[in-house]
UniProtKB/TrEMBL annotation:
Catalytic activity: N(6)-[(R)-dihydrolipoyl]-L-lysyl-[protein] + acetyl-CoA = N(6)-[(R)-S(8)-acetyldihydrolipoyl]-L-lysyl-[protein] + CoA
CDD domains registered for this protein in UniProt: lipoyl_domain
Species name: Chitinophaga agri
Compositional bias ranges of the Low complexity kind: 93-116
Protein known as: Acetyltransferase component of pyruvate dehydrogenase complex
Role, per record: The pyruvate dehydrogenase complex catalyzes the overall conversion of pyruvate to acetyl-CoA and CO(2). It contains multiple copies of three enzymatic components: pyruvate dehydrogenase (E1), dihydrolipoamide acetyltransferase (E2) and lipoamide dehydrogenase (E3).
PANTHER family on file: DIHYDROLIPOAMIDE ACETYL/SUCCINYL-TRANSFERASE-RELATED (PTHR23151), DIHYDROLIPOYLLYSINE-RESIDUE ACETYLTRANSFERASE COMPONENT OF PYRUVATE DEHYDROGENASE COMPLEX, MITOCHONDRIAL-RELATED (PTHR23151:SF90)
EC number: 2.3.1.12
Region (Disordered) location: 86-116
Amino acid sequence: MAEVIRMPLLSDTMTEGVIAEWHKKVGDTVKADDVIAEVETDKATMEVMGYVEGTLLYIGVEKGKAAKVNEIIAIVGKPGEDYKSLLGGGNNNGQAAPEAKPAAQEASAPAPAASNADSAAAAEALKNATVIRMPLLSDTMTEGKIVAWNKKVGDTVKSDDVLAEVETDKATMEVIGYADGELLYVGVKEGDAAKVNGIIAIVGKKGTNVDAILAAEGAGGAKPAAQAAAPAATPAASAAPAATPEVAESKDGRVKASPLAKKLAEEKGIDINKVTGSGDGGRIVKKDVDSYVPSAAPAAKTSAAPAAQAASFTPAGQEGHTDIQLSQMRKVIAKRLSESKFSAPHFYLKVDVNMDKAMEARKAINEVSPVKISFNDMVIKASALALRQHPDVNSSWMGDFIRQNHHVHIGSAVAIEDGLIVPVIRFADQKTLSQIASDAKGLYDKAKNKKLQPQDFSGNTFTISNLGMMGIDEFTAIINPPDSAILAVGGIKETVVSEKGQFKVVNIMKLTLSCDHRSVDGAVGARFLATLKGYLENPVTMLV
């Protein structure tokens, strides 16, 4: 059936969004990953994807007009499908675009009576309820994991209450329902994920027919009553192991034991049928065989063993593994970097930089700077100035054209517990070293505390990844889309060099530039590195 697309929550302070541009018109075919519109929020202008496939049947908000969060902005379905029943409870402002009319006229055949009845029941139910969907909380998000529910079924909900905390690929953010009433339905358990635009909850008047809404939306899911009943079965199930028989047998009479336990029992000459299992369902595991004490046996059997026989080997532990569930951040890191590595033709340029003068300059600068300047701050500043001189590197491959950015936004990769995130220092070429250091420290702290907002980690035009502080001399990095290049920074190391026939010790830092050959040629990248090297080897030039 037809699917509604609602105004997503694109920032934690957003209450409404203005449609800046529609990329589709009524009658157009829509794919799941198509950008259907651009929305201007209180923080930035971001893209909205429908995550559904079909034909665009209805546009509810004209370009330049605003829509509340969770308000219906479009409907996608089959050509000619009757979607009007979906508008009854959509909190829509009634601003249907003129294009919606032709789509309704394409209806060719009436729907079956049962389908009409279901739609009517859903429309009636939606008059007294609001469907809460998984919002789009970042520009790369496709699903979100429910970290915690702050309300349970039956609780009273106000429009500004935080219903749940959702973990995305970038941060953990709060979800507000923007609806008053009772929490009638929770569709996703804590720890489980839901696709963007998928139903996660329903809020409304007590007694509303939730099943009709779920059936009409095609969302499925358990009834609220079933969710409440499920935990009651747990204590009875957990009591079962207390009655574990001495011999763990399956229904077909076979002994339930791990392969290692069987092998170990055979090596030790133990009858596996006499061992009591402590595993799931009475399954015999290695520790059961190790701790097995057989009943008393005749002494003659013991003396029959060869005197010179070596003791059998018993491993200290047993084979095993731990499966770690992927976080939303790790999923997106894997997806985006795989796409980058296998679609963008990478090539690499390396250069050694003499950091002697940079070390002296940093010491002098820190004596007067209001904040402590790091070597990474100096690399960010030097890179930003070099990008200003080499705009071809400050670009993005867009498929059928190259976008050359006029601004310089430097992404600085930060490792956190769940993976890697890239906070962005905006207009880095225009900022002083102390301003860059202050911005970087604030962003790094927010990243580690999962407090970054979408505007903090989006919009990069170039990225720097620094592993020097972890003792890495040099490495290559994968380009961070949509950038055309990324700079990998190694540690500063004392190195013996020959200069004019004399050997001396200098402090060398190795830089590796990964370039997308579709938009950056080798000579372009080499000239950029030469300029960057010049700034770092003579830092005073960055102040001119």
